[in-house]
Amino acid sequence: MAPAPEAELVVRPLDGGWGWVVVLGAFISIGFSYALPKAITVFFHEIQEEFTISYSDIAWISSIMLAAMYAGGPVSSLLVTTYGSRPVVILGGVMCWVSMVTASFGNSIIHLYICIGVIGGFGLSFNLNASLTIISKYFLAKRPLANGIAMAGSPVFLCLLAPLNQYLLSNFGWRGSFLILGAMLLNCCVAGSLMRPVTPPRNPSKAVSQKKLEEQTDVYGTSLKRNCMKNFRKFLDFSLFKDRGFVIYLIGSLMFFFGAYAPIVFLTAYAVKQGIEEYSAAYLLSIMGFVDMFARPGTGLLANTKWIRPRVQYFLSFAMVFTGSCHLMCSLGTGYVFLVVYTVLFGIGFGMMFGLIFECLMDLMGSQRFPSAVGLVTIIECCPMLLGPPAAGKGALVDITGDYKYLFIMCGSVILTGGVFLFVMNMYNYHMLDKERLKEHPPPEATVEQTAPEAIDETATQAEQMKTCKDDPRPESFETP
Amino acid sequence: MECTWTGNQNKLPNITGYWKKDGNEIDSRLTVPLENEQYNLKGVFDIVGEESLGNYSCVFGSEAKIEFVLAAPQMGEVRDKPIVSYAGDSVVIACKMEEPKPKPSTWHWYKANGTDKALIDAAAEPHRYQIHSEGGKSTLTVRNLTQADAGFYYCGAVYLISTSLGRLEVRVITFLEPLKPFIAIVVEVLVLVAVILLYERKSKKKSITGSQKTKKEKRENSGGEESSSVRQRKV
């Protein structure tokens, strides 16, 4: 396979070495991003009393923060493709710091909505997007494992932040706690500084072609002198919708996010309604978080094996089917032991999904298109994520039927359907991809025998090249062993 | 109050029953007949004031005792953790009597003064205290907090028969307290970022000088070999 001449300048992912330090940085960054909206709920009761508002008013802070985190996707994609991951994560850390510090001086709920919700949410979205992108730049062969470890940051930080916040609250009140939390968020800047940008090797003889490379980057990433239409297209790259794999993934993940958070939100209430005391019911969520912590890197490890890696999309659909069946099973039984078993299985399913969800997008898009893809995906995922819990819980089901059982049935069936959909469509997609690959690269006369891991590399790199070759005239290429 | 007992194996036709309050017998002993397989003992008591409250028990012979507790509605969950607020700021503390329990006729707030409780008169100091009571809920707002305002506060739900108290603790701290860990963490972050970036710059310089050195060595080596071969040829 003759690579295009400019492609020689793109560096092959490290798959180790400094890459693991980058994973640590991403672990911290992603950890704060997902854990913070949930962890600050500890302060809500006290703020609610001081501002004399209702609980639903204050719960909006978390929703706005989560929404901003996902809606900020396209903006952060643009920044990441222009400036690289490191400055964006540092900017995100500083924004979060500013948001919490200004919030600690707030005197009205609107002030908190804007500071924590909007500014904080955008800061976190910068963190999230840039961290995922840099992993895709540093890893290829070990990428599922790197993704799994980095995403494990979320449950770990949630576990750490929850008791820490309680301690801060009882010692400093909510204002002092926000001040200190803001300083802790500044550690995202430390995580960002670890994310060394991946630069092509400096070679004076290739200075001319380097310029060509930069011009090409300019055309596809940074040009702001073009007209508005093209600018908007850089913002939200709608050409991604032409990609069959992307659309399949998007539909599947939309269905997942619709049903993903409602069971978590209502699990405690469901347990209490069955007669379990409140403390044990709250403990269920801790069990889930604990299992999640190990499920994510475990999934990454599994997804990295030679049996699963080439067909990792099937693994994602399996995870979805598993999670969906879990919820359906929950509606069948009662009792504390049963709920504990359900929670453990749910934790495994949830961890599998989140360990894989961004890995599969990277697998489909390749590291060149991933930043814009993830921005588009997160802003679209915003809707089902915000609509899911209220639709399932208050609006549609619980109020009408009065029984939480139907909530689990609904979420379970939506997720299960999504999983089956993904499975079937991916069978079709892989079939089409194989066909296209055979068309463009007919098998050679003499087949070279390669050892198993290199074979994965081969299929993975070939698949990547296939995807990028189709749309991007400047494909990624890796020195074939 | 009425007690009903289904009796034991003996099922005597008559049994003595009497009432006790706080462990002391009140009224005279009565003979309770067995009706429909059970013994019924009824007692009517006038509640006149706080003295009427306490632990009542009805006793059947020497075999069965049923206890009643007569008291004013108690407040459910009152915060046991202190409310932390800042000097110069204001704090809002609240007490609530939950739904099914009857609402008090009024609320009073007290500040603990050693072992004593001093009634807070919001009307006398409106710029400092503000009490807002509404049915089953009452809030006390204390403005311009100072260290002297720290301590225990009592909210009293006033009923005709007695007052139920709830206790809350207020702690007042200065802004310096959270500022110290804040500055410490910011310093730590700046130091770490500086260290990481400096380390990166150093390792980059090393790799550049290293590659330059190897290039030089290569040139020298090849030059040396040539000269030696030339010398050899000369010889």
TrEMBL record, chain A:
Predominant localisation class: membrane
Protein name as annotated: Monocarboxylate transporter 2-like
Domain Major facilitator superfamily (MFS) profile, residue spans: 19-430
Domain of life of the native organism: Eukaryota
Catalytic activity field: 3-methyl-2-oxobutanoate(out) + H(+)(out) = 3-methyl-2-oxobutanoate(in) + H(+)(in); 4-methyl-2-oxopentanoate(out) + H(+)(out) = 4-methyl-2-oxopentanoate(in) + H(+)(in)
NCBIfam families cross-referenced by the UniProt entry: 2A0113
Record carries keyword Repeat: no
Matching Pfam families: MFS_1
Family in the record: Belongs to the major facilitator superfamily. Monocarboxylate porter (TC 2.A.1.13) family.
Keyword Cell membrane: yes
Protein localization: Basolateral cell membrane
Keywords per UniProt: Cell membrane, Membrane, Symport, Transmembrane, Transmembrane helix, Transport
Lineage per the UniProt record: Eukaryota, Metazoa, Chordata, Craniata, Vertebrata
Annotated TM spans: 18-37, 58-80, 100-124, 145-164, 176-195, 246-270, 282-302, 314-334, 340-358, 370-387, 407-428
UniProt feature coiled coil, ranges: none
GO cellular component terms, A-Z: basolateral plasma membrane
Region described as Disordered: spans on this chain: 440-481
MF GO annotations: monocarboxylic acid transmembrane transporter activity; symporter activity
Segments of skewed composition (Basic and acidic residues): 467-481
Topology with respect to the bilayer: Multi-pass membrane protein
UniProtKB/TrEMBL annotation, chain B:
Compositionally biased spans, kind Polar residues: 224-235
Pfam families according to UniProt: Ig_3
GO cellular component: membrane
Localization: Membrane
Signal sequence segment: none
Transmembrane segments: 181-199
Main location: membrane
Keyword Glycoprotein assigned: yes
InterPro entries attached to this UniProt entry: Cell_adhesion_signaling, Ig-like_dom, Ig-like_dom_sf, Ig-like_fold, Ig_sub
SMART domains hit by this protein: IG (SM00409)
Membrane topology, from the record: Single-pass type I membrane protein
Start and end residues of each stretch annotated as Disordered: 204-235
Keywords from the named record: Disulfide bond, Glycoprotein, Immunoglobulin domain, Membrane, Transmembrane, Transmembrane helix
Ig-like domain span: 1-58, 73-174
Protein name: Embigin
Organism (species): Myripristis murdjan (pinecone soldierfish)
